[in-house]
Here is the input.
Amino acid sequence: MPASTHAPRFERLDALRGVAMVWMALFHLAFDLNYFGWLQPRQNFYADPWWTVQRGCIVSLFVFVAGVSLAVALHGGQTWPRFWRRWAQIAGCAVLVSLGSALMFPKSWISFGVLHGIALMLVLARLAAPLKGALWPLGALCIALPAFVQHPFFDARWSNWVGLVTHKPVTEDFVPLLPWLGVMLCGLAAGQWLLRARPQWLSGPLAAQARPLALLGRWSLSFYMLHQPVLIGILMAVQALRS
Here is the structure.
């Protein structure tokens, strides 16, 4: 049977992705409550380390798991046409995120957020996958480079996606190529190592309590696209009823 169409699910990996989804949803719920003025005292999600560090951890988990998932897909024989079909879904959702954020946050709309970043990084990571052991130092270089190289040229909206900015742009989500490509490359390298040396860590049994997380992880893109409109809609309805 072709591995590309009959590859088994790695439920532990799905559950880890599910953890990232739940953490993200709770973070966004807190953001929305603050946006509607229901979180007291009011929080600064753009500068308070309690929130900025959480955001960094959530994005890191998302991108790292995406790298591991790419390794699993390639190990299962994923072809370029199959890759492009999935990529088109991610890229299309990224466009919808930009449009939706422009309606709600016209001055800080999302031009290059997590889905935009993942779409670009997946292409580059797939091309880099044959490097195998060299992925670790290449990933470390990508992570470190923005700390040492910045230039005003990259501060414009049309060029800040590279990541070598002198200051963070005014936007609701910003996941540039650098340093986040490095996180995905490390995830890809980790996935390749796990499949080669410790496959049981991925394919081992999953506790019954974690199966809902695995189910959520399998529908991560749909959940990502729907959770904020649902949360905001519920809060707007509650606000309308209260008034």
